[in-house]
Design a protein that fits this description.
Layout: H1 9-37, E1 47-54, E2 61-71, E3 81-88, E4 96-99, E5 101-104, E6 107-114, E7 118-127, E8 133-143
Antiparallel strand pairs: 1-2, 2-6, 3-4, 3-7, 5-6, 7-8
Length: about 150
């Protein structure tokens, strides 16, 4: 038996709305519970990272990023593994990366290639000698054209 056109549509629309409302509510609850479970990780070791850039002022092309790591007592932090990642402050550019070498206790140097003039953000990915991981960042403003 065929139903006339339009018959039962009100019931189907109501059922769809109810199902969509339930699915939406479930998604919202899932998102809220995930956000509520996330806490920022606080480091057990307070590390200060100071930086310098050569050449200064920074120009498009190869640069060396000097890093000094000290603990809360001002003592050099030796034996860290450091990877740096330079990104433009606007979207659309791939990152420039470099691995730092320790020159002396607490003093490191990493190469970085500035591919474009402008403002850069440098992310410092630290792995301390005890295995603890930290991330810090700093800005290099006004990288000049070559």
């Amino acid at each position: 038996m065929r139903r006339p056109p339009g018959a039962g549509q009100a019931q189907d629309k109501g059922g769809k709305r109810e199902r969509i409302t339930r699915e939406l509510a479930a998604c919202i609850l899932l998102a809220l519970s995930a956000a509520g479970c996330h806490r920022p990780v606080e480091s057990a070791t307070a590390i200060t990272v100071e930086h310098d850039v050569a050449p200064s002022p920074a120009r498009v092309g190869s640069a060396m990023i000097g890093l000094r790591l000290t603990n809360a007592g001002g003592k050099p932090v030796a034996g860290a593994h450091i990877a740096i990642e330079g990104v433009m402050s606007h979207a659309g550019m791939g990152p420039a990366t470099g691995e730092a070498k320790e020159l002396e206790p607490g003093r490191y140097q990493a190469p970085l290639e500035f591919s474009m003039a402008g403002d850069w953000i440098v992310l410092v990915h630290l792995t301390l000698s005890n295995g603890e991981k930290q991330e810090q960042r700093f800005e290099i403003k006004g990288v000049r054209p070559d």
